[in-house]
Structures are given as structure tokens and as C-alpha cells.
Amino acid sequence: MTEITLINCANAKTVHVRKGRIEEGEGGELFDCKGMPVKTLRCTVALKPFKRWEELLEDPVPEPEWVDSLLVKGVGAAIAPKGTRAALVEVVERPFVLDPLAPPEEVPERGAVVARSLDADSSYGYKLKYGKWPVEDLGDKASNNIILNPFWVTTWEIKKIKIASFMPEMVALGTSSPIPPELRKAVLSPLTGRWGPDALEAVATLLMRSHYWSGELRAQHDDASCWSFLGKEGPRLAKGSKAMLWVGHEEAELVVTGDQVLFREELLELKSVSAPSPLL
């Protein structure tokens, strides 16, 4: 479909999409929002859910069910290393450095997912081995990559991290490591195959509040940093912007990604590929 106009939307009178971009005016097929809001697609990190390091090392790919759950929640891009089946998600191959003791020369300059300061052993062990703290030793690489699970990062290293991703399941059971409140804005990865980013924000928030005894702390998905990591400008509901949007409340009634338009019936077909959970 090359042209569609959304009318009667909650937060915009009309949204006109022609040849994959938002334009002024009206034309093409009409879609009645019936008062539902128009929202830009979100960006998230999708990693394969796992319980052991070895599983991720052998096959670091999101499950199809996880990717599909992103689609129906209005998420626009998933960062995945390779081989992902993704109907709407733009797949960008990313290297993983999962050994928290890997030296800086083994870490790419940018665009990788890098494990650092997972626990006391990896944090202090790195300092003993190399003479510097794990994130400190990365230099500029710390701000150009996603730092995975820096639960034990030192306070003087936090400012070097631009994007952090937390997967509590990766840390051994019984750990008391909190998420540093300075890193409460994070790109959040899935705990299981069918949990979306909204649920992960709740999990991260509970972790921070319980460890710091504070009801004020709140984790947030850092959408802008995620798009920046992809090397893209985040989508906007503005003239000239690439159309990357969805209509709906909890679930999408319509999704537009450039020239591709999917209505509810097609989205339901996507969702039926996986067994839906109450969180979606």
C-alpha cells in the first residue's frame, strides 16, 4: 500500500502517509482511529532468553515468539545478532562479547553488546588482572556499545556508559547486586520469550526499589539511545518523517512501517504464531 490517511485519532486530527513518509493533506485509503492514539514505534534490544551462559554462547538469537510479541506491542526494531525471522522488525547483526574478563582489544569500537561488571568476581577480578576497572578500561568503547548487566559497576565509571541493558536472569541466583539508580534509563532485554519491554521496566523497577528501599526509583526504557545505537533517528509524527507508527491502546489495531501497512487481522495472524501471555 502506497497511501493511507488516519482520521479521528486521539492525538492528531489526521496522519497522512504516502510512499512510506508522513505528508500533509489526505489521500489513499482511510482508516478511522475511532479516538485511539497514534504512537511511534519503539526500539528495543531482543536477545535470546536463556538460563545458562552456554545457551546464549551457542545460539544468541531471539525466539520467534519474542519477536512477534514486539510486533503486537508496537516495537519497531530489534537488535539481533543473526538469523532472526522477523516480519516487521529490522534485523541488525551485532557482535556479542559475553566474557566479562575479555580485554579491550577484543571489544569492537561500536555496535556490540558487551558484558561488564556482572558480579563482584568479574568486577574485582578484572581489576586484579588488568589494573583497571572493567568499564573504565573500555575507554570510548563504553559509550559506543551496549553494556550488558553492569550490576557491579563503580560509581566513577557510570558516566562512561551511554546504554545499559539488564537481564537479571543472567546473574546467578542469590545475587544481591542492585541496578545502579544512575542507570535507571536502560535498554531492557527480555527475561522470557514472551515478555515485552513494558514488563521488563516493571521488573527492573522492582529490583531497584527493593535494593534501595525507595518507592521513588523507576526504570525507564531509553528509546532515544536505542535508536541512536541503530544509527537511526527515532521516528516522529512529523511531516517528512519515515512512517513508523501504530494505532491502538494496549494492542495495535494498525501498524505502519514505511510502505508496509498491517491491519488488525494480519496482526492477529502474526500473534497466533506464538501462544499469547497475559502480559501482552
In the CATH hierarchy, what is the superfamily of the largest domain?
Answer: Metal-dependent hydrolases
Strand order of the largest sheet: 3-2-1-4
Which CATH architecture of the largest domain? Alpha-Beta Barrel
Order of helices and strands: EEEEEEHHEEEEHHEEEHEHEEEH
**Count of separate structural domains:** 2
- What's the oligomerization state? single chain
Using DSSP, what is the number of strands? 17
CATH topology of the largest domain: TIM Barrel
Largest sheet: 4 strands, mixed
pLDDT < 50 runs, ≥5 residues: 81-87, 273-280
- The average pLDDT score comes to 77
Helix content: 10-25%
Distance between the termini: 28 Å
| Derived structural class | alpha/beta
- Output the number of helix runs: 7
Question: Could you walk me through the main structural features you see in this protein, from its secondary elements to its overall organization?
Answer:
Helices cover 22% and strands 22% of the residues. The protein is of the alpha/beta class and 280 residues long. Helix 2 (64-72) packs antiparallel against helix 7. The longest helix has 16 residues, at 197-212.
